[in-house]
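Lab notebook, page 48
Experiment: co-folding of the full assembly
Goal: obtain a model of how the components sit together before planning crosslinking
Operator: M.T.
Materials (sequences as entered):
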Amino acid sequence: MTFWQSPAVKVGLSISLATGLYGISFGALSVAAGLSFWQTMALSLLMFSGGSQYAFVGVLAGGGSGVAALSAAALLGIRNGVYAMQLNALLQPRAGKKVLMAQVTIDESTATSTGQTDPAERRRGFWVAGVGIFILWNIFTAVGALAGNALGDPKQWGLDGAAVAAFLGLLWPRVKARQPAAIAVLCAVVTVLVVPFVPPGVPILVAAVVAGAIGWFRNGHETDGLEPDLDPYPAGGQA
Amino acid sequence: MWWWILAASAAVFATKLLGYLVPASWMKHPRMERVAGTLTIGLLASLTMINTVASGTAVTLDARIGALLAAGVALWFKAPFLVVVVVGAAAAALLRLAGMP
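Observation: model returned without errors.
Model output:
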């Protein structure tokens, strides 16, 4: 079996293309939120975690402060730490490799890797999806940022509506079951209720505290909310 | 803003790296995984609402509500992420064209 015939490589490449493309929407939203082209690129190159990046610019777009944006991004990034622990046990990388692996440890590379059973395939899936998405995500972030800059008034083009849709799209795959859906509704209601009383950006942190407390005290499936943005292995699918 | 971008990027990277450095025996701590999961759901739900109804510290109902509903319909019909985003933008843009704030 050559590299290109490996199922993990094929899945990794297709998920790279699907995920990389939506870097366009991130780039456009980021400049609409007031960040410059290079600030937008820094987020995609250095932060490189879709959810955290959307959260960072989403808080800024709503008038939130830098510290509120940082907090939201960091909290959404905790998920990646859990993925890293799983991958560390699964792939048992050498110490030197861990730094490189950490940068491309995201929803999609984790899902592609853990969906395989053969250790070599797991490794290939992780690297192909991780590096593939890193390259394409950054290229398409640049495209989106340049296009967004050229658009003029972002509201006229519904870019604020695009942000709403993007967050709902990130949330959607994680609330298939009843309990996660209830948590989402509760946090949505809490957010709207506290908006008039606290500075912009803070309602998100209030919702985070509520959600974290529920996770701490309830008994449920520990994987709720840790579902990746995309399922690289749809049941009976083409993968 | 540059400092916040760099600090936030460092925090996100450190979280990833930390996951590789903790001993494997800590790995299965169900409570920790649960909190990471519910936190993700809560933050994304909150960010969805903030971007839909908040204008600074005011709650307003405008074209963004249409974007939320249209995106929900697109997701219901299993549209891919990029299509969902475009549908949301189109809904907000069309409602504004029709005179909605």
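Interpretation: The helical segments of chain B are 2-21, 30-53, 63-76, 81-97.
Next step: discuss with group before ordering constructs.
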